[in-house]
């Protein structure tokens, strides 16, 4: 190994390099190696830049894909996955042959195939099975567990909500069987009166351009039964496909003969106990369905102000969310009273103008009349504490037959109840020149006519709630109708007491206040519907020349029975008149 010394040459051209493992390199060799090293450095720098560029391009491409995915709702293209199906020769009802090769990946179709028909054939889901095949601990007293499936509507096929409920119910049923209990889980379908009728009507219109009235009652009901048989059978197959351990020998449809008898029997008993009664009240009326509907079938849409909404039966959108101010001329005076309304068409059913008794602005008008501008009708100016003097003009037009608050006011003040809108949503014969017009066309015409007569005063935006029929999407019309009601107050109080006494437990307990709130403010339930499909109310109105004429809402003149002949017997006994002299109308 060489060592440096004081006698080493300093001339750069003659300088020699000493290698660790070889002879010394010349300056020329060193220069060549330096040139190679520089080329390598430049190559590596170039490669680094290429990699950075590729990485930046990849990031940009991924960001582009993410944006496209976001536009499409985050959905990715579904990649078809191979599904292995069970292809063994197991006959329906036989125990599944599992002596075959299993699929490489889990396959629900493979696993679930062939079991259900065997379970059914063996009767595992029938409560009698465990009497015929007692368990080893048969000496221990057995409990019973019975559950009725909340019957799915035959309006269509099952959805995820049904799937989760069937899963929960099936878990309960199987758990109780594991505990040694005698278990009965009853399956079935609900005829879903109004919902099914609407679906079939839409189908008829879509496919044949016919209404139920075009077909007539009998032919229309034939169409509904066809629908029920198709959808009902498919629903049962879906429940079975979920593996639900129901006893299919006991399946029930809510319009089966024995079910209809039970419904009639319940109605008859409740009517005779005065729990069910008849009354004329405001109902939620769907002009499209031509039927009353329950509160739960009404969707309440909040409007913040002026809004145009599409309404069934109208080509153009209808304006809502505004207060229209107009004047009623005071009779024999140059004065006027300005009132405001969100439903201008109902002015044709007005029977009074009401002000607050302490409102100084109108005290001199108490007891006087205003003249209706379009009808030969005088409206009294009356007082009622329901009026808010600070809202609008402080004067309120009262339409007792078309508004819940006005209805109560009308009863307090003994006002006339005038129905200005009929079952079809047309202005009634009480409406003079507007009779026969669609209600929202009449609204527009009235606004025009008020302006022409100089009685229009203003239009202001107004927050309001619009009631919409969940079935037909029509605007609900409050109409005065004689209907059948269930008195819910006694039942509600018993339900409240049951929870407070801990006889009935609500879990989690945080929902107890909701229970109390619902039941403490309960209203009687309107149970009658103007439908062709469903249980017919088993009540008959009694007429006879030998008894005074009855009122349509007088319970004394209504009798409930399973048949016409049975009703005739009851009517004859009630009025002490021979059956031959009685006529019944259902």
Structure description:
With 586 residues, the chain is an alpha+beta fold. Among the domains are: 108-255, HUPs (Rossmann fold), CATH 3.40.50; 322-462, Valyl/Leucyl/Isoleucyl-tRNA synthetase, editing domain (Isoleucyl-tRNA Synthetase, domain 2, Alpha-Beta Complex), CATH 3.90.740.10; 539-585, no CATH class. The protein is 34% helix and 18% strand. It is built from 14 helices and 22 strands. The protein has helices at 27-71, 108-112, 115-122, 129-132, 160-178, 193-208, 212-215, 217-241, 257-272, 404-413, 439-452, 489-500, 512-520, 564-575, and strands at residues 144-148, 182-186, 188-189, 252-253, 276-286, 291-293, 298-303, 307-309, 318-320, 322-329, 336-341, 352-355, 369-371, 378-383, 395-398, 456-461, 464-469, 477-486, 525-526, 539-543, 558-560, 583-585. The strands form eight sheets. A four-stranded antiparallel beta sheet has the order 6-5-18-19. The protein has a four-stranded mixed beta sheet with strand order 13-14-12-15, covered by helices on one side. Helix 12 (489-500) runs antiparallel to helix 13 (512-520). It is flat and about 135 Å long. The termini are far apart. The relative contact order is 0.09.
Which tags fit this structure?
586 residues, four-stranded mixed sheet, Rossmann fold, four-stranded antiparallel sheet, flat, disordered N terminus, alpha+beta, 22 strands, Isoleucyl-tRNA Synthetase, domain 2
């Amino acid at each position: 190994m060489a060592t440096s010394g004081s006698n080493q040459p300093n001339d750069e051209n003659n300088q020699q390099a000493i290698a660790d493992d070889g002879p010394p390199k010349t300056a020329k060799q060193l220069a060549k190696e330096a040139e190679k090293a520089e080329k390598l450095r430049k190559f590596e720098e170039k490669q680094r830049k290429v990699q950075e560029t590729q990485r930046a391009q990849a990031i940009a491409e991924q960001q582009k894909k993410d944006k496209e995915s976001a536009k499409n709702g985050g959905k990715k293209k579904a990649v078809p996955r191979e599904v292995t199906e069970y292809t063994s020769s197991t006959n329906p009802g036989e125990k599944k042959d599992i002596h075959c090769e299993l699929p490489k990946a889990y396959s629900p179709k493979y696993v679930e195939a062939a079991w259900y028909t065997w379970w059914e054939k063996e009767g595992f889901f029938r409560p009698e099975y465990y009497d015929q095949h007692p368990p080893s601990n048969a000496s221990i007293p057995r409990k019973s567990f019975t559950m009725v499936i909340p019957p799915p509507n035959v309006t269509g096929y099952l959805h995820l909500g049904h799937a989760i409920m069937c899963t929960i119910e099936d878990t309960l049923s199987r758990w109780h069987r594991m505990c040694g209990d005698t278990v009965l889980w009853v399956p079935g379908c609900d005829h879903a009166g109004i919902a099914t009728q609407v679906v079939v009507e839409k189908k008829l219109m879509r496919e044949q351009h016919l209404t139920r009235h075009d077909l007539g009652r009998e032919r229309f009901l034939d169409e509904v039964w066809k629908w029920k048989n198709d959808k009902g059978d498919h629903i049962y197959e879906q429940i079975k496909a979920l593996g639900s351990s129901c006893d299919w020998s006991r399946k029930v449809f809510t319009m089966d003969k024995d079910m209809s008898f039970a419904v009639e029997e319940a109605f008859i008993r409740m009517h005779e106990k005065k729990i069910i009664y008849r009354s004329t009240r405001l109902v939620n009326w769907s002009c499209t369905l031509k039927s009353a509907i329950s509160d739960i079938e009404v969707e309440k849409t909040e409007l913040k102000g002026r809004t145009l909404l599409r309404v069934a039966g109208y080509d153009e959108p209808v304006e809502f969310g505004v207060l229209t101010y107009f004047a009623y001329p005071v009779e024999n005076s140059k004065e006027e009273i300005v009132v405001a309304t969100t439903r201008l068409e109902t002015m044709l059913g007005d029977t009074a103008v009401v002000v607050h008794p302490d409102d100084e602005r109108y005290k001199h008008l108490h007891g006087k009349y205003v003249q209706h501008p379009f009808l030969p009708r005088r409206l009294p100016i009356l007082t009622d504490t329901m009026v808010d003097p600070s809202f609008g003009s402080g004067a309120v037009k009262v339409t007792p037959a078309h508004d819940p608050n006005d209805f109560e006011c009308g009863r307090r003040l003994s006002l006339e109840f005038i129905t200005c809108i009929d079952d079809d949503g047309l202005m009634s014969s009480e409406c003079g020149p507007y009779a026969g017009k669609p209600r929202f066309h009449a609204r527009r015409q009235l606004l025009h006519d008020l302006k022409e007569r100089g009685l229009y005063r203003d239009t202001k935006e107004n927050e309001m709630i619009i009631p919409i029929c969940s079935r037909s999407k029509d605007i609900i019309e409050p109409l005065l109708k004689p209907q059948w009601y269930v008195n819910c107050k006694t039942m509600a109080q018993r339900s409240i007491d049951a929870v407070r006494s801990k006889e009935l437990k609500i879990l989690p307990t945080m929902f107890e206040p909701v229970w109390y709130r619902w039941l403490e403010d309960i209203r009687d339930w309107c149970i009658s519907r103007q439908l062709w499909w469903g249980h017919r109310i088993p009540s008959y109105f009694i007429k006879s020349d030998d008894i005074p004429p009855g009122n349509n809402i007088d319970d004394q003149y209504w009798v409930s029975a399973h048949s016409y002949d049975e009703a005739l017997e009851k009517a004859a006994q009630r009025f002490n008149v021979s059956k031959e002299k009685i006529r019944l109308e259902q």
